[in-house]
Amino acid sequence: MVNRADYGLLIAGPGMIKILNYLKDQYEDEIVEDIRKGLTSSKKSIPSKYFYDDCGSELFEDICKLSEYYPTRIELSILKNIAPKFTQLFRNKDLVELGSGADLKIRTLLEPVGQETRATLRYIPVDINEMAIFNALQNLITRFPELEVLGIVADFTCQMNVIPDNRPTIFCFLGSTIGNFDEAETIVFFQNVAGSMKMEDRLLIGFDMVKSREILEAAYNDRKGVTAEFNKNILNVVNDSVNGNFDLCCFDHLAFYNDKHQQIEMHLKANCDFSVRLEALGLEVDFIAGDTIQTEISRKFTRDKIEELVSHANLRITNWYTDRDEWFSVVEMAHRA
Question: What pTM does this model have?
Fold first, then answer.
């Protein structure tokens, strides 16, 4: 049983979960404008952040369990190996996870540091999906009742200012989500986070590294079709948001590696000619077979590229953790002295 108060308190089980929603007033207007802009552009697109409604979040959890999708598996192994080193680093800190989603990665970090350290922590997940935050926090306080938690529903790409800054902070940006930004957006992200960090703060961030086309394309074209279902679900979000009539059967999932830009691109490709009506926008969009809507980029990185991007912000790399094959890296950063 969940009691939801107007001021954002969710009461669950043995403890209290507080969730502050900073998207209530602007999210609706923002998604409408993003859809209008994206679907009337010469190169149609829908921002990937709209994948993560309740259904999309569940589908992404399923993707993370697929044999082809190596990033989660390798990142978790890295986090498990390095977590014991953070026992002192985490003490008396806020642990802020940007784009938090499910709780598996943060749980992997918190388990080895011990109850005594966890009791000094406050965990703050920041995500646009309130129910994903609630479910993750409910799982965490059941497992770690000593842990203080505060959920924040916000878009961290433009709302870093709503994150509490009254304690030393460890920012986490895991899951290679940084790859969803183009180069300019990546630099702005680093600058925004650096602007929110104090000298004692740290940023822990996951990067998917450049590797063979075969491995990369297999990770986004799984044999079970879960990624295809996840990709198409973004059209359900559009339908719900602007009263659209997208028929998911009219699109095929398309994902490929763009070697020039070192990124996976995910598209929805029209398999017939049709028109879509978006009632809330007063807009009709025509498609002919072969037209695409870009739904995601997932950039892959080299060490040199990461160092170049970080150089644009007031940050320095303090530790670099990777797997044996260097397929994935977790990088710790601090303010540049």
Answer: 0.91
Q: Where are the beta strands (DSSP E) in 55-191?
A: 94-98, 122-127, 148-149, 151-153, 169-173
| Identity of residue 291 | D
Task: Please count the other Cβ atoms lying within 10 Å of the Cβ belonging to residue 247.
Answer: 11
* The pLDDT value given to residue 178: 96
* Interval 286-329: pLDDT, tens: 999 999 999 999 999 999 999 999 999 989 999 999 999 999 99
Beta-carbon neighbour count of residue 144 at 10 Å?
18
* DSSP annotation string for 162-219: GS--SS-EEEEE-TTGGGGS-HHHHHHHHHHHHHH--TT-EEEEEEEBP--HHHHHHH
- HSE at residue 238, side-chain half, CA atoms within 13 A, is 29
CA–CA distance, 334 with 319 (Å, rounded to integer): 10
> 69 in helix, strand or coil?
coil
CATH architecture of 3-21+68-211+301-335: 3-Layer(aba) Sandwich (3.40)
Domain boundaries, the chain: 3-21+68-211+301-335, 29-53+213-299
Contacts of 6 (CB under 8 A, 6+ apart): none
Q: Which residues pair with 152 in a beta bridge?
A: 20, 126
For strands 15-21 and 94-98, give the pairing.
unpaired
Q: What is the C-alpha radius of gyration for the chain, rounded to an integer number of angstroms? A: 20
Residue 245 and residue 248: Cα distance in Å, rounded? 9
Pair of tokens at residue 177: 């989500």
